[in-house]
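hiii so um. not sure if this is the right channel but i have a protein structure encoded as tokens and i wanna go backwards to a sequence. like what aa goes where. can anyone help
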């Protein structure tokens, strides 16, 4: 008799065969099989001729692993926040549950034990799309605790959707960081054959083990092959694909390093901060802050700007070179644009309004065309900056939280590598 968790072959009445793991079924009329692609397939029992067990779920799998901390290896705290990485299917419920104790982590990724000594705990269990400024503060405080415990590095497992916001946020919060903080996610869950969790995690461990890097970074797959990961600058990186394992790309700069997960680290740009005895200081986010993020689009309405009148700041994702906004009344069909201009003028006199570009790459230049010059005249900020829209949003919120009287001035100071020192037109998606 087959049980949940067994690997089975289902023979259907039309003699087609389906192989997979037998899962919990919520309906008594069907069996559910997890395919090697990771998808669950419900098969109506009427259409099943036979189920053969190919491999029984081994019951003694849960035998406790003994952690042996090895002399000479760095100690790394793995802090779990949720997302798909480091989760496993629970065969009783069919749910994907986090596996976060050091024993569980080593059981899933035994190679890691050869590279670092692992400490690990769950600090949140949340999809990254649900995160807010309070989570950034929470994470930073947990990082501070580990720094006080004198760990050599920190790996944060995190959902991928907003990982680039979190990496920027932590960079701004953690002043004088003197250990590596590496965010790692996975695009495919750990129970799927094509998962990227293992290589991303092992690469993060190897990078910490083999370098004296001491900043915040993201470590994710470099390409479609399962060989290398890249170490991305925390404020110059972005998720650019919904599903590919190499979804993360740098913007306007090159990655810091390439990790050949099996054996070595290759430094691509060594201008990162190294270890040198600094004392960590936290500059947290104001949790009740209201910062908006609005994308310019054809047929935009002045009402959309008005919505932000009681906000503390606004990032406007405009078009092209200047982050252009629809503010010119050029013919009788563009009367609304004049109203948008008036609303923006009012808003920008009350709160910081920061323009970024939908093109993502390149820098904002408001000096070239008349729209850009008009934007500057009404007080819109962002000229000559090259921040990603997400980093601009985080930086604006962080400045409003920590330096509210110096927002305008500090926006154009490169505080955490969020602005390119020299911008090369060659730094574009390859
Ligand atoms: N929606 C998920 C998240 O960002 C996706 C993932 O885990 O990668 O948390």
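sure thing!! here u go:
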């Amino acid at each position: 008799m087959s049980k949940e968790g067994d690997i089975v072959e289902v023979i259907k009445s039309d003699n087609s065969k389906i192989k997979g793991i037998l899962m919990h079924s919520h309906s008594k009329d069907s069996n559910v099989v997890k395919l090697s692609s990771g998808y669950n397939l419900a098969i109506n029992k009427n259409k099943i001729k036979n189920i053969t067990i190919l491999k029984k779920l081994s019951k003694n799998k849960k035998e406790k692993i003994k952690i042996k901390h090895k002399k000479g290896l760095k100690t790394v705290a793995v802090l779990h926040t949720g997302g798909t990485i480091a989760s496993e299917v629970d065969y009783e419920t069919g749910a994907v549950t986090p596996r976060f104790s050091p024993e569980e982590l080593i059981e899933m990724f035994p190679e890691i034990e050869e590279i670092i000594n692992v400490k690990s705990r769950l600090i949140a269990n949340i999809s990254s799309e649900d995160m807010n400024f309070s989570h950034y503060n929470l994470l930073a405080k947990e990082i501070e605790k580990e720094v006080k415990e004198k760990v050599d590095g920190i790996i944060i497992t995190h959902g991928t959707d907003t990982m680039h916001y979190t990496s920027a946020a932590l960079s701004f919060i953690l002043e004088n960081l003197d250990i590596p903080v590496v965010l790692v996610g996975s695009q495919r869950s750990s129970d799927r054959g094509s998962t990227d969790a293992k290589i991303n995690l092992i690469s993060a461990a190897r990078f910490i083990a083999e370098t004296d890097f001491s900043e915040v970074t993201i470590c994710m797959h470099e390409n479609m092959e399962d060989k290398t990961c890249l170490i991305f600058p925390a404020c110059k990186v972005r998720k650019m694909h919904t599903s590919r394992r190499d979804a993360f790309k740098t913007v306007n700069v090159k990655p810091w390093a390439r990790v050949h997960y099996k054996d070595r680290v290759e430094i691509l740009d060594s201008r990162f901060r190294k270890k040198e005895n600094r004392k960590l200081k936290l500059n947290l986010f104001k949790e009740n802050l209201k910062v908006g993020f609005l994308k310019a689009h054809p047929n935009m309405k002045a009402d959309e700007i008005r919505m932000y009148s009681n906000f503390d700041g606004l990032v406007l994702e405009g078009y092209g070179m200047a982050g252009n906004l629809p503010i010119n009344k050029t013919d009788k069909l563009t009367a609304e644009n004049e109203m948008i201009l008036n609303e923006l003028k009012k808003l920008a006199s009350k709160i910081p309004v920061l323009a970024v570009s939908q093109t993502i790459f390149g820098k904002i230049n408001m000096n070239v065309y008349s729209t850009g010059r008009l934007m500057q005249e009404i007080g819109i900020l962002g000229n000559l900056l090259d921040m990603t829209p997400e980093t601009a949003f985080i930086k604006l919120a962080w400045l409003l939280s920590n330096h509210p009287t110096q927002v305008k001035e500090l926006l154009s100071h490169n505080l955490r590598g969020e602005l390119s020192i020299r911008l090369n037109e060659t730094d574009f998606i390859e």
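oh and Residues 83-84, 127-129, 159-161, 185 surround aspartic acid (CB under 6 Å).
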